[in-house]
Amino acid sequence: LFASFGKQPMTVHLAAGTYSTYGVKMYSGWQISGAGIEGTRVNYTKDSSNTVFSSFYTANDSAVNQLVSNMTINCGGVNGERRYLSAIQLRGMQWNTITRVKVLNCSSPSREGFILWIICCGAYNSNHNAITNCIVDSCWGGGTSAITIAHAVAPGYPNAHWNCYDYNSTMTGNYIRYAHIGGPGGYQCRSLTIANNTMVDCVYGCNFDSGDNYGTIVDGNTITNSTSWGLVLGGGLIYDSFIIKNNTFTNITVAFGVRNF
Q1: What's the whole-model pTM score?
Q2: What is the Cα–Cα distance from 49 to 160, expressed in whole angstroms?
Q3: Which of 94, 152, 217, 236 sits CB 3.0–4.6 Å from 160 for a disulfide?
């Protein structure tokens, strides 16, 4: 899949059907859309070199205008599996979007195995990235966040820049179920919006535990049957000017928690 394509910006429409990939390396301006969640199915096949773990991924922090949409991605993991199988990991600066994607059978051996992830590690701010109207279902292990927007979230991460932030990004309208993980996570963000998401049977609903976060809006989310927290702040960092409103917590021991990870 896409093995013969160049690096120039392009738009690709995947017709209804089933496709297999060892992992598609994305570039700036790549727009890849299927024929809908029920129409286009992409099955991940483990790379023989054991170096690619995502169906779609980017390695360039300056990438812009990337899009993956309208498809189901089956990562091929099974219950109890502990190898890292992610779905989409986009590195990039601005206007990168993951939307209307259903993800099945991911797995992770650790808390850092993000399933749908947009991150920038460059020495500049990122902005206006979005993960919207996606479904993450039947993913195993880890305890990480199912969907994440971040900027250089760890000191040991290559080229990490703690003085830069992601601005004005959104995670809205997503449905996350039975993931053995958490819902949306925002790390090193300013003016991030997490709204109208549904998290069912997850470890936690929303998570903020890396990087300083300012002006985050958590609004209108529904969190049910979390085995730990509804919403958790952790890591002993700065969480300033949060607006948390209109969220519904059901069958949760602790709706809101602060934890020093």
Answers
A1: 0.91
A2: 26
A3: 152
